[in-house]
Amino acid sequence: MGGRRAQGAVGWARRLVPALAVVLLAVGCRRDKGEEFAVVPVQPAPALEAPRASGELFRLSEQRGKVVVLSFGYTACPDVCPTTLSQLQRLHRRLGAAAKELEVVFVSVDPERDSAPQLEAYVHAFHPRFTGLRLDAEALAPVLSSWRVTASRRYPDAARYRQRPITSSDSYTVDHTGAFFLVDKKGALRMRLPYTVPVERLQAEVARLLSEEGAAETGVRVEKARARLTPAQVGAVYLSLVNPSGREDRLLGAESATAGRVELHEVIAQGEVLQMHPRPEGFVVPAGGRVELEPGGKHLMLYAVQASPESIPLTLHFEKAGTVHLTVPVSPPGVDEP
Q1: Structurally, what CATH architecture does the domain formed by 41-211 represent?
Q2: Rounded Cα distance, 94 and 207, in Å
Q3: Does the N terminus or the C terminus of the chain have fewer Cβ atoms within 10 A?
Q4: Global pTM?
Q5: Residue 71 bridge partners (DSSP)
Q6: Is pLDDT at 39 greater than 50 in this prediction?
Q7: Are 92 and 102 contacting, i.e. CB atoms less than 8 angstroms apart?
């Protein structure tokens, strides 16, 4: 009996050793290579929402079907950040036509000095399709925490830091995490690579994610949203509704925090007479099709608009796709339509 028990224990140990070896190997690689590691098990990427310089809101959750390469830095960075963006510039060029499914995002860790227009100009100097995002200090802190990114100021004179408050004019650098975060087409964080990774390796990892099948699009996508306002505190919102799914949907209504109410309307021409018809039944968005809300046709009517905003927060309600939030830039009077 004791012999059988001993043999069973030995067999159990033999089966356990390979499993432990796999676990220890994974942990060991992660430690030995510092910041380079695959995310196992695969999990959704942390949330990221921030306004672009144009005022339009960027949401990582809306980038399904694309591979996103995310990095953190700041425009006054003398070495690491230009190196990082140069690597991404080379990556974009080497991918060729496949780069149309790539979204490159650079998040500022120095919002006190990086204005949104300055940040956009900086990243566009490397490529016009790169996205620069700025969050204020309060909103940035939880984002850095969720992505496990470090960012702290370094002053040349520690005594000066203690003796007077921080101001935007102070000369400082920011110690921060230098890494590429790779998010796949389904919105999962798949890998983190150090900024020193050779471009060939970065390209291989991104190309692998680009070759994977993306998440099937099931919701309505909003494109080319813009608003026009009048001095009478009314206005209209125009946009394109694209339905890539295989089922018909319907825009049921809309609301905005900066307007008393929002109604669905359509202009109908009766000879030379133009009639404004409310459409409480909504607008049908056909399966695999699109609907244009444009001047002289379907549009969203805004009533009692507050002040003169540069952009308008808007919430759309769809029958199947549910709720969609967006920020709509306001076109000044006299500006041509895109």
Answers
A1: 3-Layer(aba) Sandwich (3.40)
A2: 10
A3: N
A4: 0.54
A5: 106
A6: yes
A7: yes
